[in-house]
Specification:
The chain starts with a helix and ends with a strand. The radius of gyration is 19 Å and the shape is elongated. About 15% of the residues lie in helices and about 45% in strands. Strand 2 and strand 3 (about 40) form a beta hairpin. The strands form four sheets. A six-stranded antiparallel β-sheet has the order 7-8-9-14-11-12. A four-stranded antiparallel β-sheet has the order 1-4-5-6, with no helix packed on it. Strands 2-3 form a two-stranded antiparallel sheet. By secondary structure, the chain is mostly beta strands. It folds into two domains: about 5-80, SH3 type barrels (Roll); about 85-200, Golgi alpha-mannosidase II (Immunoglobulin-like, Sandwich).
Length: about 200
């Protein structure tokens, strides 16, 4: 699994899935250090690991070290008990890879950014809202795009953990309503984010 796969799955981690605590050398594709002599560190040795429970999941802290250079890296990975981010991403991956990209909220000048991928046949979409500050409380109505106005859609928040970021309708909603009235999303906390899956019924 690449760092891109994990990032798009909504995890706060880049690089390959970290193996169980062993004193082995592992390759982390999302980590690269270029040293003053031009050498590049891609392989790091795991020197320690700690896991602690937090609200609705765990935080895994992994300490890594270069074998030859004085480079020490600490990675923190946040996981949720009640979601499977990898399975969610595999389900929406075709839309993200081949769909049309819409910028719903610009990252410039605000405290939230949002983008959306919609399938070419308008059968589904994936929506991502990203907080752009350490301590934010921001609400934004996201007007969706690229949907069939007359078709019904179900909107589901994925990878949410214990916190809901939007009050979503329980019944299917027509595409016109989602594009004209949108969904109200609230982000709060350090670089909070939310992911939504839109499925045609």
């Amino acid at each position: 699994m690449t760092g891109y796969d994990i990032a798009m799955a909504g995890l706060l981690s880049f690089g390959q899935v970290i193996p169980s605590a062993q004193k082995e050398i592992v390759k982390h594709s999302g980590l690269q250090v270029i040293h003053a002599d031009g050498a590049v560190t891609l392989r790091l040795k795991e020197t320690g690991r700690d896991e602690r429970a937090v609200d609705g999941g765990r935080i895994v802290t992994v300490k890594l070290q270069d074998e030859h250079y004085p480079v020490y890296i600490t990675r923190h990975v946040r996981t949720w008990n009640d979601c499977d981010a990898v399975a969610d991403y595999k389900r929406i991956r075709p839309i993200v890879q081949r769909g049309d990209l819409y910028r719903l909220v610009s990252p410039y000048g605000g405290r939230m950014s949002a983008l959306m991928f919609a399938s070419e046949d308008r059968s589904g979409a994936a929506v991502f809202a990203l907080g752009l500050d350490k301590d934010i409380v921001v609400e934004e109505t996201l007007l969706l795009r690229g949907l069939d106005p007359d078709s019904k859609y179900v909107v589901t928040e994925i990878n949410r953990g214990a916190k809901l970021h939007a009050e979503l309708p329980k019944e299917p909603v027509d595409g016109r309503t989602l594009m004209e009235k949108g969904i109200a999303v609230k982000l709060s906390g350090k670089f909070d984010s939310a992911s939504f899956e839109v499925t045609k019924r």
